[in-house]
Structure formats: structure tokens, C-alpha cells
Amino acid sequence: MRRGRRVTIGLLGGSFNPAHGGHRSISLFARAALDLDEVWWMVSPGNPLKPRAGMAPLSARVARAQETARRAPIRVTAIEQTLHTRYTVDTLRKLRQRYPRLRFIWLMGDDNLAQFHQWKAWREIARTCAIAVIARPGYTRAAFGSPAMAWLRRFVRPASQCKSWTTWRLPALVHLRFRPDPRSATLLRQEAPQWHSRYALASLRDGVTGRCLTTKE
Fold first, then answer.
1. CA distance 9 to 102
2. How far apart are CA 148 and CA 124, in angstroms?
3. Which of 2, 34, 200, 203 is 20–30 Å from 135 (CA)?
4. How far apart are CA 61 and CA 178, in angstroms?
């Protein structure tokens, strides 16, 4: 960590069902592009916009994410379970209260921006935390034509200024171009539907809170 400045954290939320090399690649890219100290993978106990059917247990998803993030400046956390939050807007509010010395930026792919208008209090999210959107193959047109983007467009910052995101007045959004990565959790589940079985007996400690992870979801 560098002295004389607050620690900067990129937040990548999602189901991570399962985590894969694509998550790692975009996280390391975003860390370099935004000059972040760390990236936190926030493994959601339950995504309100995704069906529960086919969702692996939280403990297995965290274990796989920890394995994928090994030896990288990435912390894997199920902190939403500790905070008792389900929606991003509530999670961000509590994170800022819990870690007032940290600076957070929300990381999302084009696929999430395309449906951002369906998130609870999405405008409040944008007013709470800077957002970095990472290009994903096949989703760019939907993302740029989305209802949320129609509102956010006036707040877009040039990618050339992305390392200065801590000084931006909110709302603020930046688009980051990243080489296409075809890997996806959907394809991995199709290839190995029982991928989570190998993590059934995993012993876990949360990468942010340090607490032992329970299997309660």
C-alpha cells in the first residue's frame, strides 16, 4: 500500500457460479487501469435477478473463487452474508460505514450495465460509488442502448482519466476496453454441472472479514 492516500478497492460483485479465469483477467486489468490496491470479489449469497435453480452452495462458490484468485491481489468475500444485505445499494451503504478509510469503485461488465435499470435504487448506487464498466463480447450494444445508460451518459468520464477516479464528482462512470474473453460461468456449468461437488468439504475463511464461512444462505 502507498502512504499518504486512502486504500482503493475495486468491487466485483456476482454469483461466481463458478468463478473462472475470465473473472481473474478482468479484475487484474481493472486493477492496473484504475490504479487500485486490491479487488474484492463479493460472492453473493443470492442474486435477486437470477433464479435459485442451478445455483451452487455459497461455500462452494467462495472456495472456487479463492482457488481462482490465488496469488493475485484479489480478496474473496461473502461479506453480504455478514452485513445481512441482498441488494447492492444496501451493501455499498454498509461498506462505507464499516470501512470509512477505504475508497470503493464498482466494477461491472457490459452485461450488467444492460440490466442495471432493474437493480434496486440504481441511481442511488451511481450517486454512492464511481462505476467502471468493462467491455464484454456481445453485450456492448445492449449496454449502450439501455435505460440506465440513457441517464448515465451525461456522467461518462474519458478512459484517459480513469486513474483519477477518486477525485471525480459522483455520479461518474468510465468505460474500459478489454480484449475479448470468451469464458463464461454458463458454459462451465454446461460442461460440468456438478463442479461444486469437489468443494463440499472445503474449510473457508472470508478474505475480508476473516470469519469462518457458514453454509447458511
1. 7
2. 12
3. 2
4. 25
